[in-house]
């Protein structure tokens, strides 16, 4: 069953368009999450296609946050 912290992380990723890795059952899926009409499951858009994961099967959610690390180091 998904925890409140994982549900909050999932919602934050959906709101910000971030990538997540979701561990469910004995598998994982990495991609961009979104809600469908049925809020008892989440859609993960992966490189191989879409995967629907029931919330009660989610064991862990990891948000993958992209950092813009490009910085001009020559200026002071």
Round the mean pLDDT to the nearest integer and report it: 91
- The CATH class designation is Mainly Beta
Estimated structural class: alpha+beta
| Shape, per Cα inertia axes | elongated
Q: Percentage of helical residues?
A: 10-25%
Run of helices and strands: HEEEEE
Distance N to C terminus:
50 Å
Main sheet strand line-up: 4-3-2-1-5
Instruction: Classify the beta-strand content into a percent band.
Output: 35-45%
Q: Could you say how many structural domains there are in total?
A: 1
Report Rg: 15 Å
User: If you consult CATH, what is the topology?
Assistant: SH3 type barrels
**What is the tally of helical segments?**
1
Poorly predicted segments = none
Overall CATH architecture? Roll
Number of beta-strand segments: 5
Biggest sheet record: 5 strands, antiparallel
Report what the structure shows.
The protein has 76 residues and is α+β, with helices and mostly antiparallel strands. The chain has one domain (4-64): Roll (SH3 type barrels). The chain contains 1 helix and 5 strands. It has one helix at residues 4-16, and strands at 19-24, 27-35, 41-46, 49-54, 58-64. It has a 5-stranded antiparallel sheet, covered by helices on one side. A hairpin with a 2-residue loop joins strand 1 (19-24) and strand 2 (27-35). It is elongated and about 50 Å long.
Which descriptors apply to this entry?
76 residues, alpha+beta, SH3 type barrels, 5-stranded antiparallel beta sheet, 1 helix, 45% strand
Describe the structure in brief.
The chain is 17% helix and 45% strand. It is α+β, with helices and mostly antiparallel strands.
